[in-house]
Design a protein that fits this description.
Helices cover 33% and strands 22% of the residues. By secondary structure, the protein is of the alpha+beta class.
Length: 191
Amino acid sequence: MSRLVPALLAGVLTLVSCGSAGSVRAAVKKEKDRRPAPNFTLKDAMGRPVKLSDYKGKVVLLNFWATWCGPCKIEIPWFVEFEKSYKDRGFAVLGVSMDEEGWDVVKPYVEKTKINYRMVIGDDMTAELYGGVDSLPTSFMLDREGRIAATHVGLVSKSAYQNDINTLLGPGSAVAPGGSGAPQSAGAAQR
């Protein structure tokens, strides 16, 4: 029994975050406290350049992840749903895979899990632009002006992301979890 407790604790810590930082930071920052998201250009699966600056004008969930990361695998279906539900309201998910094996492991994973949002392969330089991404998943919520409005390190709840998205998209843009994309009142989204 005494060995079981440390083993369970280690498993829980691994599930929360794949990396050194185990903290979770969230909540949308006030506009005056937001800083511009560093721009980058990375290639998608077809070899086309993807610039973060091309997403200006949209609310973006920028997700650093890897195929071997357990918590990342939990979040991905949520992000697929968000892309589907919110894309017509000026929202996009952009995945940045930190897999060292690159497209050899990412392409099959994207196909198998039916990821419907844009994916690029990141590198250490990209991670450093964002303060050194030491833990996966790490996600940044970007406002329409391309500023970092919230940071999530480790696994956070689906509802935390939904609250951030609805806050950044503005009034009248709330979508029920698993909803068809039809807007509802802000009060209805919080029930």
